[in-house]
Amino acid sequence: MTQLLAAGTRFDGLVCFNDALGAMSALQQAGLRVPEDVAVVGIDDIEDARFSTPALTTISPGRQELTRLAVNRVLARIEAGDDPSTSVHAEVGYSLHVRASTISTPARHFPSTEQAQLYD
């Protein structure tokens, strides 16, 4: 986050797979307001998300279903002697918990020459 800010990159929203709370802190230290200047969404629904300032909007990855599938897969491999390198595709549900870090604000407009970009 600090590198993105130092580079002068303009953006009005973030989706963070890791450490959205750290990104929000860096934004605030840079003088930006969440969500007024930058909206922030996290993925993982860590418990601290509800208690951050502002509270973090987050995507919760269906932990119970994911855990059940993982345990059942491990047990099936043990019983059948499956090759552990065999991959299995599984889909689990998710839920979006909208909180203060993405409260609707007036539209933020950038010049039309700028395009939406994804950053690693």
Protein described:
By secondary structure, the chain is of the alpha/beta class. It has a single domain (2-102), classed as Rossmann fold, CATH 3.40.50.2300. It contains three helices and four strands. It has helices at residues 2-6, 20-29, 63-80, and strands spanning 13-16, 39-43, 57-60, 95-97. Strands 1-2-3-4 form a four-stranded mixed β-sheet, covered by helices on one side. β1, α2 and β2 form a beta-alpha-beta unit. The longest helix has 18 residues, at 63-80. It is elongated. It starts with a helix and ends in a 23-residue tail after the last strand. Mean pLDDT is 85; it is low at 108-120.
Give the secondary structure arrangement, pairings included.
Layout: H1 2-6, E1 13-16, H2 20-29, E2 39-43, E3 57-60, H3 63-80, E4 95-97
Parallel strand pairs: 1-2, 2-3
Antiparallel strand pairs: 3-4
How would you describe this structure in keywords?
3 helices, 4 strands, 120 residues, 4-stranded mixed β-sheet, single chain, alpha/beta, Rossmann fold, 28% helix
Q: What count of domains describes the coordinates?
A: 1
Please identify the structural class as seen in this structure.
alpha/beta
Q: Which stretches are poorly predicted, pLDDT < 50 over at least 5 residues? A: 108-120
CATH-assigned homologous superfamily: Response regulator
What is the gist of this entry?
This protein has 120 residues and is of the alpha/beta class.
